[in-house]
C-alpha cells in the first residue's frame, strides 16, 4: 500500500510546497487522527473562495462561492473521504462500501484505489449522472445497481455494514463529517471570521451538519467571533426537511440531492434551529436557470445540485421573504460539485447544427446566424 504521509514536499532548492497536502495535514489537530493513522490523501481541500461580483450586485450582498468542485474528484466528498478511508485502513478494513447518488461513490472509489483496498458502490440504477458513474468505473470500484432509489441503497448498505465485512463510508460514518467540517475552517481562515449567512444544498444533510460542527468548533477556540445562519436548500420534489415528512418517491433534475429520507436529518435540523437558519425549496426550473446564470455571468460551471443554493439565494432576495439576508450581508454559498459531472443536463438543450464548409465566408455567416 502507498500512503501520502508527508505533510510537505521539498524541492531540490529547498523551497517548500505546502499546497495540496490535503485537509488532514492542514487541520490535523481538529481531526480524529493519530500518528498511527496512515493518511490516504489526494490533496483535497484549499478550494477557492471566489468573490462573485455579478451575483453580489444582483442580491445586494457580498457573496462568496466556495468552489468544492475543484477537489480531486470534483466534489466536496473528498474532504470527508480522506479521513474516513484513512481511519478505515487504520482499523484494518478489508473493503469499503457506500450508497450514493454519484459523488460519494466517485470519491470512495478514488480513495480506495489510492489506498489499495476494495470498494463496493451501491447505486440507484439509471439515476447516476454519467460523469460520476464513469469515475467509479475508472477507479475500479465494484458497482451494484439496484432497482430502487438512494434511500433504498443506503438501507441495504447499512445492513451489509452491520455484518462486519465492509466499512461504510457514507456520511453516517462520523469520520466523513469530521473531514467535511474543514471547509468551514478554510472559510473562516480566509475571511477572518464566519460569514453572516451560509447557504448550501441539502440532500442527505451531512454537509450542513459538518459545516455547523466546523463553525462551532472554530468559535469555541476563538478562531472566529460568530457563527453564520445556516440555510439549506432542497429541490421542491425532494424536500423532506422542508415539508417535515419522508418523501417516498423523490424527484428532481438535481440527481445528487434526490433523497427522500436524509440520514443526518436530525443533526441538520438542530443546526438550522440553533443558527436561526432556515430551509427553503426551489423548483427544477429555478435550479437550471441558476446553473446557467452562474456559468454565463460568473464563469463557474456547477452541477445542478450545486446551483440550488444560488437559486435559493436569488429567490429569497426576489421575494424578500427572509429577513436573515440583510443588505450587505456576507454570504457564502457552497458549490458542491463540478458541472462536468452531469454533462447531459446541458447537452440536451444544445442544438447541434450541420458543419459548414471550411472557409472564412461560411464561418462568418454561421457566426452571424448564431447570434
Ligand atoms: N451536492 C452534491 C453535488 C452532492 O453530491 C450531494 C450529496 C449534496 C449536494 C448534498 O449533500 O447529502 O451532505 O446533504 N451527495 C451524496 C452522494 C448523497 O451520494 O454523492 P448532503
Mean pLDDT: 94
The kinds of small molecule bound in this structure are:
ligand F0G
Q: Count of DSSP E strands?
A: 12
Element-level helix/strand string: EEHEHEHEHEHEHEHHEHEHHEHHEHH
> What is the CA–CA distance across the termini?
55 Å
In DSSP terms (H or I, runs of 4 or more residues), the helix count works out at 15
Unreliable residue runs? 1-11
| Beta-strand fraction estimate | 5-15%
How are strands sequenced across the largest beta sheet? 3-4-12-9-10-11
Shape: globular
Radius of gyration: 21 Å
Report helical residue fraction.
40-55%
- Helix/strand-derived class? alpha/beta
- Main pleated-sheet profile: 6 strands, mixed
Explain how this protein is built.
It is globular and about 65 Å long. The N terminus is likely disordered. The longest helix has 16 residues. It is built from 15 helices and 12 strands. It is an alpha/beta fold and 371 residues long. Strand 1 and strand 2 form a beta hairpin. The structure holds ligand F0G. Ligand F0G binds next to helix 4, helix 9 and helix 13.
